[in-house]
Write a structure and sequence with these properties.
Elements: H1 3-18, H2 24-56, H3 62-90, H4 92-111, H5 116-130, H6 133-144, H7 150-161, H8 164-175, H9 184-193, H10 196-204, H11 210-215, H12 219-237, H13 264-286, H14 289-295, H15 300-311, H16 316-324, H17 330-350, H18 354-380, H19 388-440
């Protein structure tokens, strides 16, 4: 295959993709893909939902709760790093399916864990599979949608994904107090593990990324994928706009070392700092909120109820992302919302009136999830196709490692300084996030991936 022919084909794939209008096809594709993200968020927020119950039942202490939280994030750290690289080698579709299967198997095992040690081991293994989901999903959607609507489709994916949060908190509220055949928290875990049932159904409707196919020399397959996609959308919306051809430099095969070379080195360092600290603000609240409420003297049942009410706000954060992600510069939106989270967290820590606790919890939830939709779109734009999943997987993976240690820090701060100390830590972390993106992040809105 000549180099010139590859250049022409790459230009055709890029231009053919970017001319496509919004359609139900893309919405259905993103919805199917987001089921994997749904189960990742189910797993992530599962800890906050059942953690207080595990402490109440003496299976865990506040100290060992940090190990339980940390085990999952440690598994996610390795899963994100390894599957990000694997996805660049075996394809977005295969990486997505295999990682989801690993999560499902070990989550089912966790539901029957006989002790705290096995609970941590199975969560570590489940984390290995689930940690890769959002990295692969972000990469997959970024490559499979037009450049002008990347932010919208990432936000739409998160809208679906975040429904996991009110669902898992409602299940915890209803099932944790029960003891039908086994402890109620085990039913909550088991329901999450049943995601394996959906894996093969999802697989049937997912095409491989034509950008990835082209990058790996599968020119004819990339063309076939694009023809199928164009046919489906043309049946829906009518005649497609003409292709506007642009000369695009053919990409070589990517290597891990490339993320440490200009112009990607500065982006890699910026994203490392960003991800080390953003996870403190995001998961520091989400993973610990029922435990934080119990520490303030609120009963377990009431803390789960308050958490459920706050969780109902989760899907609405991505809606804000859908409305703003492609209209306003993502870089500056991330900066502004990071500062807002720091301020809202401080107010939450000083509040003692139940209605105000719920109100501030809802505001933090909205801000966190709005923030999430923006940065998941943003970080997937900063690397070319050949190293996109590798770069995002490596940098995003450090957010998981950060969560391992931040759990121990939060447990210590909660013991020594209470909720105020925890949110002081969170606020400082979010200010560092704002500085890293505001000072060193490039602008990406309304640019084609090949131009960023």
């Amino acid at each position: 295959m000549s180099t010139q022919y590859q250049k022409q084909q790459q230009a055709a794939v890029v231009d053919r993709m970017n001319r496509l209008p919004m359609s139900k096809y893309f919405l259905k594709f993103v919805a199917k893909l987001s089921i994997g993200g749904f189960f990742e968020f189910y797993e992530l927020f599962l800890v906050g939902s059942i953690g207080a119950a595990l402490i109440d039942e003496k299976l865990l202490t506040t100290g060992s709760m940090a190990y339980f939280v940390g085990a999952g994030f440690l598994g996610m750290f390795f899963g994100t790093l390894i599957f990000g690289y694997v996805s660049d080698k075996v394809g977005r579709r295969n990486g997505y399916i295999y990682s989801l299967l690993i999560y499902s198997i070990f989550t089912i095992c966790m539901a029957f864990a006989p002790s705290a040690v096995w609970l941590d081991i199975f969560r570590l293994c489940a984390g290995f599979g689930v940690g890769a989901q959002l990295v692969i999903i972000d990469t997959y959607i970024t490559e499979m949608t037009p450049s002008s609507k990347r932010g919208f489709y990432i936000a739409y994916s998160q809208f679906i994904t975040f429904w996991a949060v009110p669902i898992v908190t409602l299940l915890a509220y209803l099932l944790v107090p029960t003891h039908f055949l086994m402890d109620g928290w085990r039913w909550v875990v088991l329901i999450g593990g049943l995601g394996a049932v959906f894996v093969w159904w999802i697989r049937l409707g997912l095409p491989e990324s034509p950008r990835w196919q082209e990058q790996h020399g599968q020119i004819d397959k990339a063309d076939q994928t694009m023809k199928h996609l164009e046919k489906m959308i043309e049946q829906e919306v009518g005649l497609l706009p003409p292709v506007q051809h642009k000369e695009v430099k053919a990409e070589e095969k990517g290597k891990f070392s490339e993320i440490w070379k200009p112009p990607y080195r500065s982006r890699t360092i910026m994203l490392l700092v960003f991800n080390l600290f953003q996870t403190i603000g995001f998961y520091g609240f989400a993973s610990w909120v029922p435990t934080l409420l119990v520490s303030e003297g609120i009963t377990l049942v009431h803390s789960l109820f308050y958490t459920f009410i706050m969780a109902l706000a989760n899907p609405f954060g991505p809606i804000l992302g859908m409305l703003t992600s492609d209209r306003l510069e993502r870089k500056w939106m991330i900066v502004v919302i990071s500062i807002a989270i720091a301020v809202a967290g401080t107010i939450f820590s000083l509040t003692r009136i139940p209605s105000l606790i719920i109100l501030m919890g809802i505001i933090i939830t909205l801000l966190n999830n709005w923030f999430s939709t923006l940065f998941h779109s943003y970080q997937a734009e900063l690397y070319p196709t050949r190293i996109r999943a590798t770069g995002v997987g490596f940098t995003y993976g450090w957010s998981r490692l950060s969560s391992v240690f931040s759990g121990f820090i939060i447990a210590g701060l909660l013991h020594e300084f209470g909720v105020v100390g925890v949110f002081g830590f969170i606020s400082v972390a979010m200010l560092i996030v704002a500085i890293s993106i505001g000072g060193f992040g490039p602008k990406t809105n309304k640019k084609e991936l090949e131009e960023i």
